[in-house]
Please model this.
Amino acid sequence: MFKMRKNLRRLTITTVALVTIWFLVSRLSLLEVPTSAPPQNKVVDLEDRLDKLQVKMDQQLSDSNNLLAKVKQHLKKNVHEEVKEMIENEIDIEGASNPILPVLVIACDRITVKRCLDSLVKFRPSKETFPIIISQDCGHNATYQVIKSFTDMDPTITVVQQPDRSEIQLPRAKVKFRGYYKIARHYRFALNHVFNTLGHKAVIIVEDDLDISPDFFEYFLGTYPLLLKDPSIWCVSAWNDNGKREVIDMSRPELLHRTDFFPGLGWILRKDTWANLEPKWPEAFFDDWLRDPKNTDGRACIRPEISRTYSFGKVGVSKGLFFDMHLRYMHLNTDFVEFTKLNLTYLLKDVYDETLMSTVYGLAEMSADEVVSSAGRQPVRVPYSNAKTYQKAAKKLGLMDDFRSGIPRTAYMGIVTCFIRGRRVYLAPDYPWTKYDPAWG
Model:
């Protein structure tokens, strides 16, 4: 950090010195006004000279402003480059190079937790780096016996029982949502156990109905440093809500995005973030609660182009409806991407935001109908102006069209990206976007 501050200070001082020298020289060139009063009969000539001098001063002022703009652009570019270099080569924050990232498995009464644990054990590259902690609610003995078969054979796999399994008293209108209340209560216990009882600094969270990709652990190892270095990021998720084969680029398994919409379904969280969330943790529907920018301080998550998890849990609190309509069609990545060897600094907020906006709003416009009915390789922008026009375009493109706290799924700064028939498509607002409207949806 000292070297980073020193480099930035040296760059700033050099730039300021150059601007100061240029300013002094330009001011000296203006000192051509006669020092003695002109004769009375030369007033007209003097006024003419003063007019010309004013024009010259205006031109030099314009040149000065242009130079300052170029200097600022140059400074910003060089600061980005130096920051990137230091992030890649010099900075190691809180053990980013050798982290311990436990995997927390949220379990209840599904004996199919075996499928989830088999997948985690199969692809886990290091028992020491990725200890597995299973937190079980419900007190279901058959499920516990399945879990115990793993803990008995491997000391890096442990189980803890949720102690509070009491019935939650609810008004009649909310009784049908009791399962969601129990899940939120269980999450609070499990996360407090990992962070406060066991003292871990971060945790990867999965539920008992998830398959993982071969590079699941590599994905989190490679992206974890972003959580440490960019305060605008609060989570990294393995899930793409619009991750169906028809709307993703299957040739880009390494591609990642920022999103304002909490994806869930395999995600990593830091202890300091949990310390801010825990005091106000909701009684139910915690995932939608995390999708409200007010609760996450307007920060973003990282999500992949191609999902690193797949949900096989048709039976659950949602009664299988969401699975049949959506989850069953999601594509699980099968390629192994070495994320720890990739340069992921393009995901840092200052770099990503500027690139995204300049790219999207420099593209040609097309309607959603034109996108799905034509072929082409050039990326395009599909504009929308309100919730209704967004939903109409999203449906046409094959995207999920719902909102949470006014945020479309996978959106970032109001922009949703997908890949259709060989073409990158950005569904983007046609107005100056500033924030999401909670009234949408």
Summary: Residues 43-89 form the longest helix (47 residues). Residues 1-6, 21-25, 28-36, 86-94 have pLDDT under 50 and may be disordered. The chain has twelve helices and 15 strands.
